[in-house]
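Model: Ready when you are.
Researcher: Fold this.
Model:
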Amino acid sequence: MIVSVQDGDSASVLPVINDECAKCAGGCSKQGSPFSVKNPQHFSLRTGTIAAISTPKSKQAIEGILSLVIPFLCAVAGYFAAVPLATMMGLPSGDEARAAGVLLFLATASGIVMFINRGIPEFSKPEIIEVLQP
C-alpha cells in the first residue's frame, strides 16, 4: 500500500498482509515498516494505492554474480599477496600467512559486496511494476 508519494519517481510504501498471512493461525500481528520504492513507469499514485513491487531481474542477476565473483577474486588476491605483505612486515611467510591473507581479503570482499548492495541505494531499490488497486 502506498503511504506517501514523494515525487513522480518514488514513493514510500508499507507491506500489505497477503492471503497466506490471513489464513495463518499463528496470531502474528506484526506490521511492516515503510520503505522507499522507485516509480520508473510513472504510475498515477496516491495514498492508499495498492501496487505490486519487484526488483528488476537484471539487477538481481548482477548482485548475484558480484556476490560470487568478488569474494572469489579477493580470496585469490589474498593468497598471492600474503607472502609479499608478510615479508614486508617482517612476519613469517608460510602457509599461515597465506591463510590469513585469504581470510583478510574475504572480509574485505564482504565489505565491498555489502557496500555495493546496501551502500548504493539506487542499485537495488525495488520498483513499482503494477498498480493493483488505485
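Researcher: Now this one.
Model:
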Amino acid sequence: MSAKEEIIKNLTVLADNSCTSKLNFIYYDIIHECKIEFPASSWEKARLAGYTFDQVLENTKDGTFNLLLWILRFDFNENDHTIFIKKIILSSLWRPSTGGTSPHEDGRGLDIIAIQPNIGKEIVCSTVTKSEPGYFVKLRTNALSQGLITQFFSPWTMYYYNKEGQLIEEPNRGITDNEKIHLNHVHFTISK
C-alpha cells in the first residue's frame, strides 16, 4: 500500500472539519506509527469551494506523500535512533486553483506546522522558534541535494532555484509577500 493509500484508508474527519490519519513507517528496522493531523484551516479553501477532504487527498500527488514518508524515515537524531516522529501537523496539501502558480494547486506542496518526536519537545514551525532547528537544516539540505524538492520556505530561511538553475539561499526577513506567508510553517515544493 502506498503512503497516499494508507493515509486515505486511515482518515477520520472530525465534527469541527479537522482530520486525522496515521502512517506506518520503518525507522531503523522498527515499525512505528505517526499520527497526522490536518486542522480545519488546512483545507478551508477547498472546503469552501465544495471539495471534501478525500478529494484534497486524491488531488495531492503521490510524490508529496512519498516525501512525507521520507521525512518520517529521516534521522531525527543521528545519535539516538530511539527518537522518531510520532506526530506531524500539516497546514496544506492540494488546494483549488486561484489562477496563481502555487505548487499546492498542482498537488506538489507540503506545509508542516509542527513535528512532535516521541521524546522531547514539539518543534513548532513558526517565528516562536527563534532559529531554524538542526533537524530542519539536515532535512532540507538532504532533500535538496537528493533532488526531492525544488523549494524550501520556512520562518527562518528561503531556498529556491532561480531561472539559471542556481540554488538561492536567503534569510526569511518577513518583508516580501512570500516571506510573510511562510512565517508560520515550513513549505516543501516536491520535484516533478
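Researcher: Key takeaway?
Model: The radius of gyration is 16 Å.
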